[in-house]
Sequence to fold (492 residues):
Amino acid sequence: MDRRQFLTSSAALAAGAALPRAVFAEAQAQFPKDFLWGMATAAYQVEGAWKEDGKGESIWDRWTHTVGKIRGAGTGDVACDHYHLYPQDIALLKQLNQKSYRFSVSWARIQPTGRGAVNQKGIDHYKRVMDVLQEASIRPFCTLYHWDLPQGLEDLGGWPNRDLAGYFAEYAGILAKHLGDRIQVWAPFNMPWTFTNLGYGVGALPPARSNYADFLKAAHTVNLAQGEAFRAIKAASSVATVGSAYGMCPAYPKTNSEADKAATARYHAMNNLFFLETAMHGRYPKAFVGETPYATMGFRAGDEKIMQVPLDWVGFHYYTRRFVSAAEPSRGAAGGGLATETLDTGLAGNDLTQFAAEMPTQGPITDGGLEIWPSSIYDLVMQISHEYNFPTIEITESGCGYLDGPYAADGGRIPDQRRIDFFRSELAELARAIQDGAKVRAFHAWSALDNFEWNDGYTQRYGLTYVDYRDQKRTVKDSGRWYGEVAAAGRV
Ligand code: FCB
Fold:
């Protein structure tokens, strides 16, 4: 059996069945010459070193240290030890021809309780990381907040407390002041709808409150914080550009009924636009059946001006899609998928939004539990392009969870053909959007490394590089090699 035949047969074995042709079309695509190929990680998922160099406790430290919350009792205490191993991880990115690295800063390393004095050791750490990236000619893309709120701020009430907008702006200003010479690309929040809704409205993520009013308040604070951070970053660094890292899910009406179409529009407004429309136009999109509940949200006169900031570019993730239907008040509904994405509908909130979103199963399902539907990235990118006058777009995350491990009989290589199929088909759809006029300048594969997958702990593997958590050994998967070649050639 030659290498090619082996690859094909091992993929078929792994997949258990042939992958549907309609989903994985033989794809070929050319990308613009200066396209930025990248990979992404997030502080809590990879860094480890959870109490080193003066770092404070975050809500994720508290949550994972609570028995019964995480599959396999995983914690981010050590994770991929990226806090110490970043030089070798960045060397790997370079070896794979990457041009952009999206990472996040741990707020509790910079301000251990979320406010007050700066922890210089935290700043120095990220300075060193930036220096190594610069040396490797890799563009740093900095996310300020990827869910790891300092516990000290949760103790003050967390995101529903409007004061957090000011604390966040202070933190953003500190980062831009100390790292603004090294970083030009900033995104305040990763998936704001997810962490406000699942953290405060539904209770699936820390701090695990299930109170829809708290979600509404948290979301409004985050919108204010986004605007304030935008201004703080720009004030501290003249070269800074500020965008976003929203978690978007293209939505399709389940039936042709007017009611389902209207529900789909509400879902789109809530899941995809709730933090974008506010920035771009200083107003909330129409996510509710009736009036926007301004009073419950704690909206004050003049807030529209605080929220409105012309993002320099729009960043969003794409993983999977949703079918949406109109729901009776309080019916509630769940879509399958990532632990972090399971519930799309706030329970009591359903009285206000009245949509039910489900994940279709027409395409193959990954080990991570998400349906693969490559053409939806085309739909999403075109929809956002049309709705926001063709902004510059960065795909901030996309990827798939598959559990393929080292194959001893073949030198320990990791044959993850299904991940290659996923990226190949998806990138072809992305290239088609670019041909049709979308201004997409970057794509970040999730993830550079297998890592701590939130409530799923270490039971999911999204990496293009395999991590053996027993000795922190990294092994580039077949998909990583393949993606490295795509990055070098600029085509699929
Ligand atoms: C996204 C998150 C990221 C990771 C991937 C699999 O929703 O932003 O941290 O968990 O899903």
